[in-house]
Amino acid sequence: MSDLPHSPAADRNKQPILEALARILGERGSALEIASGTGQHAAWFAAAMPGWTWQPTDADARMLPALASRVAQAALPNLRAPLLLDVTAPRWPSQGAFVRGEEKFDAIYCANMLHIAPWAACAALMQGAARHLLADGLLVTYGPYFEEEAPAAPSNLAFDQDLRARNSEWGIRRLEDVAAEVRRAGLALRERHAMPANNLLLVFGF
Ligand SMILES: C[S@@+](CC[C@H](N)C(=O)[O-])C[C@H]1O[C@@H](n2cnc3c(N)ncnc32)[C@H](O)[C@@H]1O
Predict the structure, then answer these.
(1) What's this model's pTM, rounded to 2 decimal places?
(2) Which of 41, 63, 94, 116 most suits a substitution to test ligand 1, by most atoms within 8 Å of the C-beta?
(3) Does the structural domain 25-141+176-188+202-206 have CATH classification 3.40.50.150?
C-alpha cells in the first residue's frame, strides 16, 4: 500500500474529468498540469492517455517529493518528473526548465487551484497559459465557480465560507470574473461542462 498523500476528492473526480478530457483533447499531445497536488490526476490521465506527455507541477516545494514519488510509482514513459511552478512567478517553471526549454504545450490543465490561491493567481494562470500554449492549444480548468445566471449550490456556498474563513484571500471565483481575466490574456472561453458535485470544467483557447 502507498502512504503517499491522498485526496479522496481526486479519486472521485479523476474518471469524470478523464472522460471529458478524452472528448476534448485529441489522441496525442503534450500537457502541462498546474497545481498537481498529490499527483493523482497526473498519474490517472497519463496512464489512460498514452499519446499524451504529461508534465506535473506544483507551487508548493513541500509537495514535490511526494508528487515525485507518485510519478516514480506510476512508472509511465509519458509522465514526466514534476517541476516547481508557481503561476505568479515571472517565469514558468519557477525552478529548472521544461524538457524542451521555453516549451509550449498542446494543453494546460489546472484543477482546483483558483479558489485556493489569491485572486492574482487567476490573472497569472491566464497570462502564463497564453505564453505557454501552442496557437491551437487549450487551457482546461476544473473546479467550483459561481455564475451570475445560475443559483449557487448550497454545498458551494458552504465551501466558499469555509475557504474564506481559512484564508481571507481564498474563495470560489465568479465565472464572469475569470472570463474577464481570460480575455485580458488574449484567450476566450470555448466550452463549459457541468461536472458532478457542482463543479465545472472550462475550456479556453485563443
Ligand atoms: C486543492 S489542491 C488541488 C490539487 C489537484 N489539482 C486536485 O485537483 O486534486 C490546490 C493546489 O494548488 C496549488 N497552488 C496554490 N497556489 C498556487 C500557485 N500560485 N501556483 C501553482 N499552484 C498553486 C497548491 O500547492 C495545491 O497543490
Answers:
(1) 0.97
(2) 116
(3) yes
